[in-house]
Fold:
Amino acid sequence: MRHVSETFKKEFSNSDLVNLLWEAAHALTVIEFETKLLEIEDTSPEAVVWIRHLPPRLWATAYFEGTRYGHLTANITDSLNSWILDASGLPIIQMMECIRRQLMTWFNERREASMQWTTILVPTAERRVQEAIERARGYQVARANEAEFEVISPHEGTNIVDIRNRCCLCRGWQLYGVPCAHGVAALLSCRQNVHRYTESCFTVATYRKTYSQTIHPIPDRTLWNETSDQGQAEESKVEIIINPPKSLRPPGRPKKKRVRAEDRGRIKRVVHCSRCNQTGHFRTTCAAPI
Structure:
């Protein structure tokens, strides 16, 4: 979604339109999504045409069928990618050691931090539940049967909640994995524990279990012992030679490629390779087997 937003901003250079695009992306229902697009259309009809060319199931929460837990970008992986990229240019042993050492520290820090938590849910999920409880105080609840409820709000209208299937008409419960305010109102009306209806991945117990294993320290490589195959004698060892792949590799270090949102203002020319007769590259960059 971040790449879509960046490309959209280059095309239209309007921060208000960019903000509306993000609001449309975060909209939980199709009705909310279309309402945001109408607001964009009032400002720029061309912007809506541009947005309509993007398959909404790939970027809009309202059209997403799975559980996204509120994430629309890959920012959650940025901390991991930053130090992996720093290590990727090292020789293989040093690279693996750098990654292992960072993971060892990472696991220990998170394990120790989780031991200080006294709530059932991790802090972010606990805050979300508490906010939902506060909002639910102003809702009116009507029960239809043991699982279905009508939750009425003066500002949001009526939403249908099914606590058995953990779903709400607003789709907040399904998409975030944590009961929405309507779901919380229904659960509290029948004296149910809200925390029991939260996805297990948000519990402190699951978090601690994730980081329970220890990545042990390793001594300097000068102290490593060479291992033989099934206890063979030193003189019976056979040196294994690994040959390079049978392909033509371009000189220099390979370029790092990053997939970005489609640039709709540019028409790409199809190129052909005179060596393998395939499209998408030239002879000088051909890596097909010789």
Remarks:
- Residues 259-267 have pLDDT under 50 and may be disordered.
- The two ends are 40 Å apart (CA to CA).
